[in-house]
Write a structure and sequence with these properties.
- The protein has helices spanning 51-156, 162-178, 202-209, 348-359, 368-374, 524-533, and strands spanning 3-4, 10-13, 16-21, 32-36, 221-222, 228-230, 233-239, 249-257, 272-277, 281-284, 293-301, 313-316, 333-336, 339-342, 392-394, 403-410, 416-423, 438-444, 450-455, 458-461, 469-475, 480-485, 491-496, 503-510, 513-517.
- By secondary structure, the protein is an alpha+beta fold.
- The chain has a 7-stranded antiparallel sheet, with no helix packed on it. Strands 15-24-17-18-19-20 form a 6-stranded antiparallel sheet, with no helix packed on it.
- Strand 13 (333-336) and strand 14 (339-342) form a beta hairpin.
- Helix 1 packs antiparallel against helix 2.
């Protein structure tokens, strides 16, 4: 860093100018700082300024940091308010629509009931009318017959001839016996009253008049101190501030984020929803922790409405995430983000082009070294592509401290593969476990299945069954690299060493493929084993070494 002479309390750093405008000596309130075209941060300790100016600068930097944080907090709060304001408009419109729909449904039910009851009355009217009309017709016919018989009887009284009179009297007697008037029921078969079909809606009317909005459930309270993040699961616990027997279920929402603290309205990721939770506790399982934090919120629901969200809670979900670095992998490996597969045809087109250029105008076969160097394009991190028999691919994220864990599963047809870690300076011809810069376990299933631990060109056979999935635990602080059966957490082998450089996950594949599982926390069973056994359980013997 070069500081050249400038006017009082102004200095230049690598061509960038910073000036201090000072008030009178000892006047801290008059001290202001501004930077012009500053391209890099300036270490206050390196600047040869009076002590009181250094203190002022440090205080001002703290104030600036505080103001920047508050500015970000206010910006996020304004976004929250804007989002809530827009939500009020949208939700009120939705509620009105729901209310109209409920009343339309109620009107529809009343119309259906009215139509049904009207039909019942009309059917009763038709039945009674039919019965009374039949009685009326019969009675009218009987009356006509009775009037005719009465007239015949009156005329018979004036007959003088005894024989004729007797004959007429007999006829009258027979006709009276059979007369409809004497066989009719003189009581109406139906009444004109319809009172048994009358309704009383007084109670229903009172109920309708008492219609009010249902009370919305209050917001639950997440018990952050009781929530647990472990083994890529999150156990959430919450409670209601006041007991509410009408709550039917809860809705849990969560999302991943890179920001600590309150959730941001405009976050990159959307909320995921778990509905119909019947208790005040829920466990999310099978999560991939590919973000630093996760936000959680809960709302309670009754039969009609969902309440407000709880105050959100942010929990830390850090884990080791990495992808495979295809830019430096062997050309015979087909590399994707989370898998690698042997490809015997890989790179043949490029190799033939290179050989054609080298052989042009001359005979002979180019040396492997020259061909390999021609096949190695510039790659990220400044390292060469693996070549020769080093069918290797590295992870793209290095580890320099802490504890990390990931799992690897081999495809069924995988004949030979290695899993471990290495320094990034692993040579492009180096095979895993054959140098002092890599540590691995090697599985071979070509003729018979074998499992061995390898480091520094030394191998130790391991008398354990090869698991379907292998867990790798790397403790940079404790100097341990352990391999486990990912399902049973049985320890397969442990290297005890001291890593003097950052390491990266490393893999070798021949005839087959591997799939990775990252974003995993160190399993609690592994942590417990490391604590109780101090990492000793797999025979590491002579392979334990100091990293070079």
């Amino acid at each position: 860093m070069h500081i050249e002479a400038t006017p009082p309390w102004a200095f230049a750093v690598n061509g960038s100018v910073a000036r201090l405008n000072l008030g009178t000596a000892g006047s801290a309130g008059a001290c202001t700082t501004y930077w012009a075209q500053c391209q890099q941060s300036i270490s206050l300790v390196a600047l040869e300024l009076p002590a009181h100016l250094k203190n002022l600068m440090e205080a001002l930097q703290r104030i600036i940091t505080t103001l920047a944080n508050k500015n970000e907090e206010l910006h996020n709060f304004i976004e929250t308010l804007s989002h809530s304001l827009a939500g009020v408009q949208v939700n009120s419109t939705q509620v009105i629509s729901d209310l109209e729909e409920e009343f339309d449904t109620l009107f529809s039910i009343l119309d259906e009931m009215k139509e049904s009851m009207t039909n019942t009355i009309k059917q009763e009217q038709a039945r009674k009318s039919h019965e009374l009309q039949n009685q009326l017709t019969q009675s009218t016919n009987a009356l006509e017959s009775a009037e005719e018989l009465l007239e015949f009887a009156n005329n018979a009284l004036h007959i003088k001839d005894e024989e004729e009179f007797a004959k007429a009297a007999k006829q009258i007697k027979d006709r009276v016996t059979m007369a409809p008037a004497f066989r009719l029921t003189m009581k109406p078969k139906a009444t004109d009253s319809m009172t048994h079909l009358m309704v009383d809606f007084s109670q229903e009317r009172q109920l309708l008049q008492k219609l009010i909005f249902l009370p919305v459930p209050r917001a639950p309270e997440i018990e952050a101190q009781d929530c647990l993040v472990m083994d890529n699961t999150v156990n959430l616990v919450w409670r209601m501030p006041v007991e509410d027997s009408k709550i039917d279920h809860y809705i849990l929402e969560y999302r991943k984020t890179e920001h600590e603290g309150l959730p941001r309205v405009k976050d990159e990721r959307c909320w995921e929803v778990v509905d119909n939770i019947k208790t005040t506790e829920y466990t999310l399982t099978g999560l991939k922790f590919d973000s630093k934090f996760m936000n959680f919120r809960v709302r309670a629901c009754n039969k009609a409405a969902a309440g407000d969200y709880s105050d959100p809670v942010t929990l830390e979900t850090r884990a080791f995430n990495f992808s495979l670095e295809s830019s430096s992998s062997h050309l015979n490996l087909k590399v994707e983000e989370g898998s690698v597969e042997w490809d015997p045809q890989g790179g043949k087109g490029l190799e033939s082009k290179i050989k054609g250029k080298e052989n042009k105008g001359r005979s002979g076969t180019p040396s492997p070294k020259r061909a390999a160097s021609a096949r190695s394009p510039a790659v990220r991190g400044g390292r060469d592509r693996f070549t020769g028999e080093s069918y290797t691919v590295l992870g793209d994220t290095s580890m320099d401290c802490g504890q990390h864990y990931w799992e690897v599963k081999a495809l069924k047809d995988c004949k030979s593969y290695s899993i471990g870690v290495a320094y990034r300076n692993l040579g492009k011809f180096d095979q895993l476990g054959k140098t002092n810069t890599s540590w691995c376990i090697h599985i071979n299933t070509w003729l018979q299945t074998s499992l061995a631990a390898k480091h520094n060109n030394k191998a130790k056979s391991l008398d354990v069954a090869v698991p379907e999935q292998i867990g790798v635990y790397c403790d940079l602080d404790g100097g341990q690299l352990s391999f486990y059966n990912a399902e049973s957490k049985q320890l397969l082998h442990t290297f005890k060493t001291k890593f003097n450089q950052p390491v990266v996950p490393a893999f070798m594949v021949w005839c087959g493929g591997l799939t990775l599982s990252t974003g995993l926390q160190v399993p609690s069973a592994v942590r417990s084993f490391q604590k109780t056994e101090n990492g000793i359980g797999g025979s590491s013997g002579s392979l334990n070494s100091m990293a070079q």
